[in-house]
Amino acid sequence: MRKFTRDDYVSMPWKNGGGNTLQLAIAPEDADLSNFDWRVSTAEIGGAGPFSLFAGFDRSLAVLEGSGLMLELDSLHATILTPDNKPLAFRGEQQLHAALLDGPIRDLNVITRRACWTHTLEKLQFSGSLQCDMQADLIFIFHARGGDVHCRTLAGREAAIGGGESVLIDASDGEHIDLAATAAATLYIVRLMQKRNADNN
Q1: Percent of the chain scored above 70 by pLDDT?
Q2: CA pair distance 67, 137, nearest whole angstrom
Q3: Whether the Cβ atoms of residue 157 and residue 3 lie closer than 8 Å to each other
Q4: Per UniProt, what is one Pfam family of this protein (predicted)?
Q5: Which residues contact 70 (CB under 8 A, 6 or more apart)?
Q6: How far apart are CA 45 and CA 3, in angstroms?
Q7: Is the pTM of this model over 0.85?
Q8: What gap in Å lies between CA 141 and CA 45, rounded to an integer?
Q9: Distance between CA atoms of 183 and 197, rounded to whole angstroms?
């Protein structure tokens, strides 16, 4: 289990130079935008514009804060994404153009190299305690808002995360993670699955 705080995150420009992103985690750890296998980040969007293209990657996008986005995918259809919607999954080759519904937003981005990784992204709102199934090689938990959350694995590893913090847990820690919130909390759960026949060099 590895805990990430705001001091661990890395601020950098978008691939297309249209804004800035806060990188929460990346693999390999020393990778950059030219050679990574998976990446989780947040970004502030303050105006309309295109998303960066990532050929050969799969992406998921969730709105964390703000009214939301009007998203046009490949100039074919538009969809609205707000904090209340399920995350949007799309391919990195697709042209995605965003317009603000009502003021700036903050989003969460997950991206995986299609040749060697797949992923899912889900929003989890809860209070009290629950078990979160692993169902992946790695699970990344981002705390968006609410009460502090204590995470404990079957292997006995544990960490407490507050707003803006996150943890990365390996499948070797067990089949599920026990979560306990001091008050109602909103988490985003990223499950990362490695393709066994992939050539990861």
Answers
A1: 96
A2: 34
A3: no
A4: HutD
A5: 78, 79, 80, 98, 99, 100, 101
A6: 26
A7: yes
A8: 22
A9: 42
Give the class (CATH, top level) of 2-113: mainly beta
Q: Which of 63, 100, 89, 70 is nearest to 188 (CA)?
A: 63
Q: Which ranges in the chain are annotated with CATH 2.60.120.10?
A: 2-113, 117-194
What distance in Å separates the CA atoms of residue 5 and residue 1, rounded to the nearest whole number?
Answer: 13
What is the CB neighbour count within 10 angstroms for residue 163?
A: 14
From the list 72, 64, 17, 69, the residue with the least C-alpha distance to 42 is 64
User: How is residue 75 written in tokens?
Assistant: 């100039």
Closest CA to 141 of 164, 157, 116: 164
Terminal alpha carbon distance of the chain: 25
Q: What is the DSSP letter of 81?
A: E
SS3 67: coil
**110's tokens:** 């997950």
What pLDDT, in 10s, does the model give residues 79-133? 999 999 999 999 999 999 999 999 999 999 999 999 999 999 999 999 999 999 9
Question: With the CA atoms of 101, 183, 175 and 111 taken in that order, what torsion angle do they form, in degrees rounded to the nearest 10?
Answer: 20
- Whether the link from the prior residue into 50 is cis, omega within 30° of 0, is no
> Superfamily for 117-194?
Jelly Rolls (2.60.120.10)
